[in-house]
Design a protein that fits this description.
alpha/beta
Amino acid sequence: MSVNDRPATGQPTATYDSAFLRACRREPVPHTPVWFMRQAGRSLPEYRKVREGIPMLESCMRPELVTEITLQPVRRHGVDAAIYFSDIVVPLKAIGVDLDIKPGIGPVVEQPIRTRTDLARLRDLTPEDVSYVTEAIELLTAELGETPLIGFAGAPFTLASYLIEGGPSRTYEHTKALMHGDPQLWSDLLDRLAAITAAFLKVQIEAGASAVQLFDSWAGALAPADYRRSVLPASAKVFRAVEGYGVPRIHFGVGTGELLGLMGEAGADVVGVDWRVPLDEAARRVGPGKALQGNLDPAVLFAPRAAVEAKTREVLDAAAGLEGHVFNLGHGVLPSTDPDSLTRLVEYVHTQTAR
């Protein structure tokens, strides 16, 4: 099933015909749709209020709280899509991996996975493991009405890196050592993570998500040849696993300018582009048949309004010849961003691209 076919998830016609989903399908749109990675989060005072005293992973497991947090930027900014509030390590936690998200650090794994014996600790993910996800998405889709909901998951390489390193890394020394030093174990690990990731995305789609995004946050650390040989097959497996649902599939990584063509080959319908590569050049690298998403530098939002609009205009001009364009930042909203600047940005893009 292609993204031009109506999906089997029973979306209302108004949602299916939304500007966001039409852009993902490379169809004509009434205006360029806008949403922001990390739009639900620390930049919003209402988010900080409802999260006060609640650990990150616990907040991801409370359906009513997830619903409220996911809806906050839709209410405030008028974005064209909501993204499900969660974290990429949630499915790992759900299958019993001993990890926690530590403030100021990020995910920390108590016992890193570096041997074949360690691999046995990664069991399959079942819908029952993440029943709170199904409940939250059902609540959300009832509240969102015509606004599409994006589900998401971490890509196998990025999840593997957290598991192997034991937490965030600047050098990925243990990850790359395993990838090059024991290719069979590496392949088996990514294959296992691809199955877990696909299962997590299927839960979200079957509960009502209208699109999904695969975050490969750390893929930019790889050379193209290593990505093609050691990472692309697992990402492609994830995209194939959810292809039959007919929902748009988005692929995003940071610092992946040299990998854009390969990321397109992995099977996504939309390729996310960070701020380092202009969208017209990104389109050349990705090739035809894909929509693009991006790509204003999130730090630009700290500049005066006129400067923000000028840089936004550059992004829109670079995207003018694309078959499909979803406006986004080139990475997530920074925590100290003024929420009003995001609201003004949505209004500006909508006004400038109204057809």
